[in-house]
Amino acid sequence: MQELFKELFTTDIGLLSLFTIGFVLIMGIYIFNFVRRHVAEDTAAHQNDGKTTKPGASL
Fold first, then answer.
1. What share of the chain is helix, strand, coil (3-state, %, to 5)?
2. Distance CA 44, CA 47 (A)
3. TM spans, by residue (predicted)?
4. What pTM did the predictor assign?
5. Enclosing domain of residue 9
6. Does 54 map to a domain?
7. Is residue 27 part of a domain?
8. CA 2 to CA 12: how far, in whole Å?
């Protein structure tokens, strides 16, 4: 196991692998937050559309 960590942190391919793993994790977190924020905005906008319509108007 120690040999694996040594290769991961000291060789070129290990460092590239570590960078790739970190980049994918950060990108996943960003996309998750981006989608969550836009879903919340769209949900709020959709709920506000229902409140601004005239009573008795069909959608």
1. 85, 0, 15
2. 5
3. 13-32
4. 0.68
5. 2-47
6. no
7. yes
8. 17
